[in-house]
Amino acid sequence: MPTPQHAAFRRLFSEIGTVDAVGVEERAGKYTTRSIKKRAKQFGLKLAVSMVDLTTLEGKDTPGKIASLCRKAVRPHNDPDVPPVAAVCVYPAMVRHARRALGADTPVRIASVATAFPSGQMPLKTRLGEVRSAVADGADEIDMVINRGAFLAGEFARVQDEIAAVLAACGPATLKVILETSELETYDNIRAASFVAMRVLRPGDFIKTSTGKTSGNATLGNNQVMLEAIRDFFLETGTPISMKPAGGIRTAKQALQFLIAVKETLGDAWLNNQRYRFGASSLLNDLLRQLARERTGAYQAPYYFSEAAESY
Question: Domain span at residue 299?
Answer without folding.
Answer: 4-309
